[in-house]
């Protein structure tokens, strides 16, 4: 019996593993494994332990809840983690020698991000505290029918968030500290500002946090790094309001503080970089200023749950360190040192989405995905690149399926710029036959398709489609000029890049049927799908997801609308003509392609009114269209939405293309 390709329902069988954490002794690893509980219709995450001697993964926590953020104590005998086992997310500590986990926080609004003190006797954590609340207030059970309905008073433009919904602007994030010996909980920060806990210096003197103390938060987009002196309770600024910075980490001797960030020279299209602050000389320098690629993981995917990529990780010598850069469809582990030396240490066609360094010997446990590998952990020697696979969580199931591999492509587009991408052949491909093609377009637009597993693409390949996906200008990974090129030019050369990609594969691959083309994408990819069908009839069918259709209304309804429109379209409400010129809705009369519109009811990033306007405009003209509204879902439906709805979404896409392409 022939094996089939990936089906939408296979999401119930596949497991995600993320956030590997090396123990201080360099011999043990803990990681987070997530699966979907079919009956519960929800995700379940637990911690797994692996000893590098026997390499047998063992489950350490149990239960049908979400457990994540494992962090070893300095002596390696205990593990702090976050769990929803008591309702709200709280912090627990588990001994590696056995026994029950002990709950450390009981905060009313939950607690997260445990950070151990160097002595191992305290844990700092992040907590949200509301008006007239204290850090020691505990959650009280409140029945739904007892909750009072209240009007929402809005005086700020930043009053909602796609991930959190409507914000309680009387609540602020602060830093708490738990004494593990006495059980005492102390609040370190105060005031009507958000303080985001980051790290604890190895000498025990400071915790770092991120904050924006600007008077007008609506007009400010900075994030500064601060040192909080635990003895004097004084906050010392490291950065000076010049940009946005995050993910601090320390050299073992506490002399150097590293972090990521940028000074927003190109707004949200600016490359992130590595910065190093010398506490001895008080000098701050940008370490990666000469590298024309962004620091961090900008790969887009639709599978991993809760992936965490750390910032700079220091070696024991206090001079060398490792970090990740996104470049040409890969995420690469780089080596650097204080002297300025820098080079790639792990550079393969792969997506590194997590890693943990053993500072003693330059080895690491790395989470890696490829086009045909959803994600596993590897033991890697960063000095010679040798790697050994440690986990095989999806191996048994994938032996029952056929996955399609990819072929990289590169072609010359507008202005002589090279554009890079991939072509995936259909499962069961036979020479001499012709196959339909689906063009996939990523969101962002400042993101990057990569050499990583993409569940949606495999499902389409299993249905007999070739899948084309590229990184048009505006994407990360191809230089600062490239990522900035889309700003003010939405629907211009980015559109031409995509059409040139289709022309290129039609010219180079005779198995593609030029009369059976489909196109789909989400967010910016949804905008571009709308734009494409308004400017060409070459596609037999299209699926637009969580899209933008009208920049005029988007300006006022999106959680990021007013500044995103100004940064990306380079226009505000004083330039209605330009906003409308770049709006796919303006070209609705020209859309002849059967268009499936998929949108989430609680999408505050690209609110559902964007889909409503396009749907009505098309139906009013009796065009072939259908509108699917997903309940209780936001902009992240395809990646982390309710599992049963994710599967329904995949089947809607598949069925629309089967019907029309």
Automatic annotation (TrEMBL):
<dbReference type="Pfam" id="PF00326">
    <property type="entry name" value="Peptidase_S9"/>
</dbReference>
<dbReference type="InterPro" id="IPR029058">
    <property type="entry name" value="AB_hydrolase_fold"/>
</dbReference>
<keyword id="KW-0720">Serine protease</keyword>
<dbReference type="InterPro" id="IPR011659">
    <property type="entry name" value="WD40"/>
</dbReference>
<keyword id="KW-0378">Hydrolase</keyword>
<protein>
    <submittedName>
        <fullName>S9 family peptidase</fullName>
    </submittedName>
</protein>
<dbReference type="InterPro" id="IPR001375">
    <property type="entry name" value="Peptidase_S9_cat"/>
</dbReference>
<feature type="domain" description="Peptidase S9 prolyl oligopeptidase catalytic">
    <location>
        <begin position="453"/>
        <end position="660"/>
    </location>
</feature>
<keyword id="KW-0645">Protease</keyword>
<dbReference type="InterPro" id="IPR011042">
    <property type="entry name" value="6-blade_b-propeller_TolB-like"/>
</dbReference>
<dbReference type="Pfam" id="PF07676">
    <property type="entry name" value="PD40"/>
</dbReference>
